[in-house]
Amino acid sequence: MSVEAELENSIQYSPLQRIRHSAAHVMAEAVQEMFPDAKFGIGPAIEDGFYYDFDLPRPLTPADFPEIEQRMARIIAAKYPFVREHWSRLKALEYFRNKEQSYKVEIIENLPVHEQASVYQQQHNFPELCQVNESKGWPGEVTIYQQHNFLDLCRGPHVEHTGQIGPFKLMRVAGAYWRGDENRPMLQRLYGTAWFTQEELDQYLYRLEEAQKRDHRKLGRELGLFMMSSEVGPGLPLWLPKGVFLRETLENFLRQEQLKRDYQPVMTPHIGLIDLYKTSGHWYKYRDDMYPPMPVKPRVNSTAEVDEPEGEVYILRPMTCPHHIQIYKSELRSYRDLPLRLAEFGMVYRLEKAGELNGLLRPRGFTIDDSHIFALPEQLDAEFISVVEFVRFVFEMLGISNYRARVGLRDPASSKYIGNDEVWAMAESAIIKALDKLGLPFISEEGEAGFYGPKLDFVFRDALNREWQLGTVQVDYNLPERFDLWYIGEDGQRHRPVMIHRSQSSIERLVAILIEHYAGAFPSWLAPLQVVIIPIADRNLEYAHRVLEALKNANIRAELDGRSDRMNAKIREAQLQKIPYMLVVGDKEQQSQAISVRLRTNENLGVTPLDAFIARINNTIKARSREL
To answer: CATH no. for residue 468?
Structure first.
């Protein structure tokens, strides 16, 4: 069998992924030329490019990129072959120890000694690692690749020679903890991208430039929506007045739609006793993502471990479901009372790693549009379908269409899940049956289930081509069992309800997606400020105030720009702030009790009676139209 066929048989990399993986190795060689004492971490191909992690004597900056790129171009032009060899574990350890490549040594030392399992299975967080020769058993062999002067521990595959690497560009450098552990060394992660043709590279860079203009962190500052403060803490957004108008408008829309579907609003505290989350299982399965416990009256002479506090100990909640379960348990429930649909815009807290924080897309404190449905088992199918239709309706109203459905299933090799195989099979079957009835295409992915049940995720691809979970529906037989939930059935006996967890996403993430989706130019019904009134001269101020009063009386969010600046400057300012409508009032408009309407798109609608404009914008808002 040829080398190419062996590679294809071992790892199914696409041709473009091979180019990018090979480019990562060429980049590593270029960096090694500049820093002979460099230590190397990992260097995989990723969705839009590649990266390599380096331990270097000094920080890299964008000023280093031209030299690295020049060295890469020279290596590529030389058409050096990628040569694959199989080494024994002992030979590989000796080689990398002699080269003082401690990260490679650690990778090899952590390979399983007694189990016949691929490195991909055992080290799934490092998908580019070497591959064990499984047919011979351990100690077996590891795979080594070399091109020119760079030799690496790598499972491949690569292109045949460096000359097959297409046009490339280095993109950025960032910090990355070794193995993602904040207690391990911080490495420098150098990112690049590579494509088949220069045209594809140019198109990608153009899309990236356009997408970066939509970055919600940038627009959030410019539009006065939210801010971050180092004195408050990372990942904890502060909402500014315009941002509050935006999120409250969004929440009011969601709340109205919930009420139409018989959801009952509840409110629960941000903290809870740790025992509540021990019962639910969150403490045991999720504690690494939770803020540390807050002991108020810890149990005296407790024999518990240090990380197993007992007594009156509180935690900042990472979920609302245990609180909602307590509301269900607060009174006797009959089968006639079900389904019971509880809904809350609940603030939750998760201790995301510093390197994973990303504005509103991934903060540490955020508000979940969270609902829990307690239903009879025979109601499950209809309720699940109704919830999915609700989620898709919201997406449609918000103009969100670039999403896919993913069914998250258990990973059979993992022990993180609770409950027996029977209830998991029932829950998975209910989800798939509902999707089939809806005719909704989906993919299934093992390992994406919650620890207490399978789920349906709606995964949205944003303006930067990243994917974000934007809505989840989960079927749960396990928490009703753990909390001993029951209802009195028609037969007078106790029966166990089934739970559906529904989340439309966090409000923060939804706002971030909408900012980037609309580039800050929200539909008029969502816009924090819908109208700005611009008087031409001071003598028109009194009439402008009357226009403002009329708009406010019609529940239209409006402001008056009474500054002494020129009219064109005020119009330009309003356009930069993405305000949908600018109403210019001068002598002519004042005499006719009208306004001159301009759109943020620079379209001039001319002089319009004030009443007609109010009717127009109210109709647009009522219809939640995306047109002005």
So the answer is: 3.30.930.10
